[in-house]
Specification:
- 39% of the residues lie in helices and 21% in strands.
- The chain is of the alpha/beta class and 489 residues long.
- The chain folds into two domains: 268 residues, Aldehyde Dehydrogenase, Chain A, domain 1; 182 residues, Aldehyde Dehydrogenase, Chain A, domain 2.
- Helix 2 runs antiparallel to helix 4, helix 3 crosses helix 4 and helix 4 packs parallel to helix 5.
- The protein is globular, with a radius of gyration of 24 Å.
- The N and C termini lie far apart (86 Å).
- The structure holds ligand TXE.
Length: 489
């Protein structure tokens, strides 16, 4: 692949150039595939102004008109799916089959979902006092600033674009500086739909420069962020100074609880999927595997054996199961947790080193540790890689205590065939999502969001409607009865 220039911005349908600030690498072979140009505060300002102008027109478009455009966008994504998936893989190392079949497909699905969703809107009318009719209107809010991460750029960025514009807003999206190739092309593809100019805009660049300028811009009305918890806190503080509502989808350290009453083989399959899909780089990864002691030896042995046989390969291989990590610093960070776990008394059951299969690329072997306690860093910090920490427990009470002993609270996984136990567990677990006997089932109508340091707010049908619209209460007097009259002397 030739080295592409990633523009500093796409404003309306115009590519805007900027200074090159960094190279973008293919994690599979370490080749530079693109040069990233950066939008400074002035370019961000231009993008936001274009969004304000686009909003003025877009907000007046009927629901049917918006549905038509959203469905057109979904079709455009499908038509360009091969190219989008290809760029995503070149930039992130995500296996091509997953980039195609999950990420890009999911992005198209999101546009169709929100097209359907806005056609089902319900309203509120109150007539408690028969002399008055009170109705609650939902209005769009204006310009949404969307900040996307590098682990699933098109899927997560596409979700944010679809949700914000579906409810009549315009947007400016900033992809991760590390993975902007696919999202930049996605925005160009979406620009081909019949929207007013300026409904979708993109700015590229580093978080502290471009991202910060977007967050604090006075004409950005909402900030939607997916990324790390530390960055999320900084963004929310900056947005808070302007009283800007935010949604934050942050990190996780999700417990995957395998009870002795689980269907053993399904739980094993689910645990492997939960931690090794998407090269282990997912906020919702089941990264702490808690196994009931009576089945622990058997489960751990089977889990390690299956993980040992994971097909580490080039992300374009048809049979790859684990591709390279997204960047060299990230790979080194993930490996450092294995070294640290050893010093904290963990037994490393598998991996801990770079993969020897390839000379180039950010490949590592899957890592599994038996943790001496839930307090070690590998059980408390989000590692964001193919790294499973295993703990054992005796009783359900002990499992809930371990699961909840974390600052995060995004997802919990529960494996049992005992219905009462599943019901008890979902009640006791402190996370925004609980998956029972299934890994990673995203129901778009339901909120997806984290408790504790995993986030604020959520994404999903109604959650996005609430975030991307504001309610206006209108009260109309319908009685001819005279008002109380003042000032008559
Ligand atoms: O993400 P950052 P990083 C976790 C994961 C990972 C860690 C750090 O544990 O190891 O976060 O990843 C933009 N104002 N997740 O450093 O910093 C930035 O440019 C405005 C979890 O790569 O969170 C990028 O577009 N924007 C996760 C986006 O924020 C700023 C997904 C995310 O970058 C900014 C990814 C600022 N001051 C990482 N600073 C998940 N929840 O799925 C940075 N950005």
């Amino acid at each position: 692949m030739s080295v592409q220039a990633i523009p500093a911005a796409i404003i309306g349908d115009t590519r805007v150039a900027g200074d090159v600030v960094q190279s973008v690498y293919d994690p599979a072979n370490e080749d530079a595939v693109a040069q990233l140009q950066e939008a400074d505060a002035a370019v961000v300002d231009q993008a936001v102004r274009a969004a304000v102008a686009g909003y003025a027109e877009w907000r007046t478009v009927s629901v049917e008109g918006r549905q038509k455009v959203l469905r057109q966008m979904a079709d455009l994504i499908d038509t360009n799916a091969d190219e989008l998936a290809d760029l995503e893989t070149s930039n992130t190392g995500i296996p091509l089959a997953q980039a195609h079949g999950r990420h890009v497909k999911r992005a198209a699905h999101n546009f169709r979902f929100f097209a359907d969703y806005i056609g089902q809107a319900e309203g509120q009318i109150y007539e408690q006092d028969p002399a008055f009719l009170t109705l609650v209107r939902r209005e769009s809010v204006g310009v949404a600033g969307l900040i996307a991460p590098w682990n699933a750029p098109i899927a997560l960025g596409g979700m944010k674009i679809a949700a914000s514009i579906a409810f009549g807003n315009s947007c400016v999206i900033k992809p991760s500086e590390q993975a902007s190739l696919g999202v930049t092309r996605l925005v160009e593809v979406l620009q081909q739909a019949d929207t007013p100019r300026g409904v979708i805009n993109l700015v590229n660049g580093r978080g502290a420069i471009t991202g910060q300028a977007l967050v604090v811009h006075p004409q950005v009305d909402r900030v939607s962020f997916t990324g790390g918890t530390t960055t999320g806190k900084a963004i929310m503080s900056a947005a808070g100074a302007h009283l800007k509502p935010c949604t934050m989808e942050l990190g996780g350290k999700s417990a995957n609880i395998i009870f002795e009453s689980a269907d053993f083989e399904t739980a094993l399959d689910g645990a492997l999927l939960g931690i090794f899909t998407n090269n282990g780089q997912q906020c919702l990864a089941g990264s702490r595997i808690l196994v009931q002691r009576s089945i622990a030896d058997r489960f751990i042995e089977a889990f390690v054996e299956r993980a040992r046989k994971l097909r580490i390969d080039h992300p374009r291989s048809a049979t790859v199961e684990l591709g390279p990590l997204a960047s060299a610093p990230h790979r080194d960070r993930v490996l450092s947790f294995a070294a640290q776990a050893r010093t904290e008394g963990a037994r490393v059951l598998l991996g801990g080193e770079r993969s020897t299969k390839f000379d180039r690329g950010y490949y590592i072997d899957p890592i599994i540790i038996a943790a001496p306690s839930n307090d070690i860093s590998a059980c408390q910090d989000e590692i964001f890689g193919p790294f499973a920490s295993i703990l054992t427990f005796e009783t359900p009470e002990e499992a809930y205590a371990l699961a909840n002993a974390t600052k995060f609270g995004l997802v919990s996984y529960v494996w049992t065939q005992d219905l009462m136990l599943a019901m008890e567990a979902q009640e006791r677990l402190e996370s925004g999502v609980v998956w029972v006997n299934t890994p990673m089932m995203r129901e778009l109508r339901a909120p997806f969001g984290g408790f504790k340091e995993s986030g604020v707010g959520a994404e999903g049908g109604r959650a996005c409607e609430q975030f991307y619209t504001r309610e206006k209460t209108v009260t109309i007097r319908k009685s001819r009865a005279p008002l109380q009259r003042l000032g008559l002397g």
